Amino acid sequence: MASHDPAGASARGRLRAHLALPLHRNAYFLLLGAGSGSLLGFVFWTLAARRFPADAVGLGSVLISGIMIVSVVCQLGLNAVLFRYLPAAGASARALIVRSYGLTAALSALAGLGAALGSGVWAPDSAFLHESPWWVLAFVAGTVAWTIFSLQDAVLTGLRQARWVPVENALFSAARIAMLFALVGVGARAGVFLAWIVPVLVALVPVNLLIFARLVPEHLRAGAEARLERATILGLAAGNYLGTLFVMASTTLLPVIVAAEAGSRTTAYFYIPWTISIALQLVPLNTTTSLTVEAAYDESRLRDYCRSISVQTLRLLLPVVAVLTLGAHYVLLVFGRAYAREGAWCLRLLALAAIPSVVVMLGIAVARIHHDGRMALLIPGAASVLTIALTLLLLPRVGIVGVGWATLAGQLAVAGWLLAGLLRPVYFARA
């Protein structure tokens, strides 16, 4: 006799209903894309360390980091513009994508050329880049390709096609790993760099054929159209761009500040907790991106979407924060007893800071939805300035635990400011 499980059936029904909503479903696709990329990236660097000389791995990491920094600067904050305005762009969608690609590609080519020709200054071991025009071309092409590769994820998201993001990232990451094996013994000095950059160049073709030949026409048939004001778009792009630079500055500066104040050994104990905390930020980053897209389709449901995405994000985040807070010592013990002894409290505080960061990232999303470039700048700018200032104050007194307190205090302060102002209607206004 077949058994009947009403509780299980009810749970499955709630799950199906939950995933049926694009707000939730696309958030999970974006998280899956980020997670698969990070995991396979870890595999890539592990295999690179085993199959290539240490100097090749170090050189590759420096060149790739250089490309990423130049690319972020040259993207001009247009990733947020794309997933904010594509949902309602209608017939302007294709032009918005092409112009974003063209502008950022041109800037990336110029900045990449300058970085390649000046590589002897910022990375002496990579001076060979300007010894041959082919290496300069490879660096410039890699910079342009990474810029477009980054923006195309925003395009897929804005077209409500986030399901392609994990597929794209997984295939790209797998291709990088395959290239590592193909290049062993071929180019020891630049093998890791080529294994990373060639798949980026190759991936652009099929993904953008998919976008322009299939997804944009589907979007034009199904989507609504709103008038896009150039001044509005440029205002949001400028604010988002400067806000992104603030985030990048705080992310890269804190390890540098720790190194300058406390030395390389202490920096090692800090860098592992810091890397873990940055990974935690992927959760609210991707869920609020999904929120921005869905609210762009139907801004009248903004409050409901904000409340729903807050619950979804905290359900994903709180268990991880609890594990890292309660088990910080054991998590870091994987890296050695010294890491666990010196970094556990820093990790606990950085993990706790992920909770108010949900409110901070939600505030940035709401600012984008409201076309408010000023707030898109002020929110990350305030968080970055507070965190860096408090770090400079606390680090000399209490060590890397001070960076944890600075990060937590900065996020709490900005979250409180947002709850009292921009987000007050979201959480405290009556339905």
In sequence order, what are the helices and strands, one letter per element?
HHHHHHHHHHHHHHHHHH
Proportion of helical residues: over 70%
> Which oligomeric state applies?
single chain
Count of extended strands: 0
What proportion strand? under 5%
Number of helices: 18
Going by helix content, strand content and strand pairing, the class is mainly alpha
Radius of gyration over C-alpha positions, nearest whole angstrom: 22 Å
Which outline best applies? globular
Unreliable stretches: none
The main pleated sheet reads as: none
Model description:
The chain is mainly α. It has two domains: 21-228, no CATH class; 229-431, no CATH class. The protein is 84% helix and 0% strand. It is built from 18 helices and no strands. The termini are far apart. The relative contact order is 0.11.
